[in-house]
Amino acid sequence: MFPHIRWRIAISYFILVAIVMGGLAAYLSRPDCIGDARCVRQAVSTAAILLLFGTAVVAIPVAARTTRPVRQLSQIIQRIATGEWEARVLPQTRDEMGELILAFNNMMDQLRQQHLALLEENSQFNTVLNYMIDGVLITDSEGSIRLINPAATKLFDLTEESALSRSFAEVVRHHQLIDLWQQCQKEGREVTAAAEIGRELFLQAIITPFEEGWAKGYLVILQDLTTVRHLQTVRRDFISNVSHELRTPLASLRVIIETLQDSAYDDPETAVRFLDRAASEIDVLTQMVAELLELSRIESGQVPLRLQATAVADLLLKPLDRLKPQAERAQIDLILDLPAALPKVQADPERIHQIVTNLLHNAIKFTPDEGEITLQAHRDEAENAVVISVHDTGIGIPKEDVGRIFERFYKSDRARTRGRGGTGLGLAISRHIVQAHNGRIWVKSKEQKGSSFYFTLPIATPDDR
Asked: Residue 154's pLDDT is what?
C-alpha cells in the first residue's frame, strides 16, 4: 500500500483506539465496577465490539476511496486494449494514486505516439510493396510464406490469403525457383538466376537471407523481364529478317553485275533482261527502306492524320480495284460485302487505303489458286464503330505466331507463299495507323482453314461532318 494511505489509516486507527480505550478506562473507573469481574468482562467486550465496528467504519471508506481509481484504471486499460488509444483517467487526488494515474497517462501518450509512428511506417511500407512492379515474398527459415505483395500474387495467379503460411514450393510451383531458394538456404548467401516459366513469363529471381534479432528468413524479389525478353526477341528477329531480306537482293544484284561484266553486255537482249532484273531488286530494297522509314515516322508521331468524315465505300473500292488484277492472275475470287446503310467514319482515307491494300495483298499471297477472299464491313453498335475485315481461305497462321503477327519485323514462317515474304513491317504499320485512329486491329486464324483480319474505325459525329 502507498505510504500516504498507510499513514492515513494508521492515524485514523490510532484515534479510534484512543477513543475506545479512553471510554473503556472511564467505564472501569466507575465505583460500581471496581473489583467486579463481571463488569470488567462486559466493558472489555463492549470495547472490542466498538473497536471492531470503528475499524470497519474507518477501513471501508478508505478502501473504497483507494480501489475506485484502481477500478477506473482497469476499465481504461480494457478500453485501450480494444483500440481506444485516447481513453485516459483523470487524477482526482494529489496522493500516490494520483501520481500513478499521471504516470500511466504519460506512458500511454508515449505509446500512442510510437503506435502512430509504427502505423505510418507500416503504411509507407505497404504502399511501396503494393505499388512495386517486382514481386516480393518473405519466407521464414522453414520456407513458409510470411509476406507476399500484389505483384507476386499476379505472377503466380493466386490470392494473398491462399499464399500465406503455405510453403514456397507450393506458391511458386517452378523447379528453378525452388532450387534457387534451396541453394540460398544451403549456402547462406544471396543468389540470383533467371527462370523461364512457360512460354509467357520470364523472371529474374534474387533471393537474400536475413537475420534481424529473433527474425530469420529469406527475401525473394522476382523481376518480370518478359517485356525485355520480348524486345530482345524482336531485335533478334529484326536483325535476322532484315539481314535475309538485304542479302537476297544484294546477292542477285552481284550475280547480275558479274554476268554483265563477263559477257552479257555483248548481247543487248540479255543485257536488257538482266538490267530489268537489277531494277526489280533495287525496287525491293527501296520498298524495304521506305517501310522502315515509314514505321519509324509513325511510331515517333511525325505522320499527322488528315481525319475527315468518309464513306466506307470510298475506303475499300480503291484498294480492291488496285489488287483485282493480281487476284485474277492467281484465279482467286475477290468478293466485296458492303451494306448500303453504313454510316460515315472518321478516318484518313490515304492511310486506310494503305491498311486495306496491305491486308488484301497478304491474303492473295497466302491463298492458294482458286481460293476466295472477302472484303467486308459492318457496324458494331457496342463500340460505336465500323468493323472492316478481310477473310481468306488460305493456309492460315500457326497458333504460336498469332500473338506476334503485328510485331514489327516479325514474319510467320509460312510456306507455299506467292513470291517473297516481305519485310514483316506491313502489319506493324497497319497496327500503328489503326491505333492512331482510336481503333483496334486483331486476327483470327486456323492453319489450313484461312485467316480473318479485323480493324475498327470510329463513326463520324455530326461535328466531324
From this structure: 87
Contacts of 318-326 with CB under 8 Å at 24 or more apart are 318/353, 319/353, 319/356, 319/357, 319/360, 320/356, 320/360, 320/375, 322/357, 323/357, 323/360, 323/361, 323/364, 326/361, 326/364
Query: How many domains does the chain contain in total?
Result: 4
Among 166, 197, 224, identify where a domain stops: 224
CB 39 within 8 A of CB 29: no
CATH of the domain at 376: 3.30.565.10
What tens digit of pLDDT does each residue of 413-449 get? 544 444 445 566 788 889 999 999 999 999 999 888 8
Do 239 and 336 fall into the same domain? no
Residue 285, pLDDT > 70, answer yes
- pLDDT-derived band at 334 (thresholds 50, 70, 90) equals very high
The H-or-E segment that residue 57 falls in is helix 37-81
Count of other CB atoms within 10 angstroms of residue 339: 11
Integer-rounded Cα radius of gyration of the chain:
46
What angle is formed at CA 401 by the lines to CA 393 and CA 394, rounded to 5 degrees?
Answer: 10
pTM (whole model) above 0.85: no
CATH code of the domain in which 170 resides: 3.30.450.20
Residues 316, 444 share a domain: yes
In angstroms, what CA-CA distances link 402 with 45, 124, 356, 361?
A: 111, 43, 19, 18
What mean pLDDT value characterizes the chain? Answer: 80
Strongest mean pLDDT among 15-19, 185-189, 196-200: 185-189
Q: Which of 203, 244, 209 is nearest to 227 (CA)?
A: 203
Q: 460 and 312, same structural domain?
A: yes
The boundaries of the domain holding residue 239 are 229-299
State pLDDT tens for residues 243-270: 776 777 788 888 878 877 776 566 777 7
C-alpha span between 229 and 418 (Å, rounded) = 32
Which CATH number do you get for residue 246?
1.10.287.130
358 shares its domain with 406: yes
Question: Rounded CA gap, 301 and 436, in Å?
Answer: 9
For residues 149 and 48, state if they share a domain.
Answer: no
Residue 115 is assigned to a structural domain of this protein: no
Distance CA 330, CA 323 (A): 11
Determine, yes or no, domain membership for 151.
Answer: yes
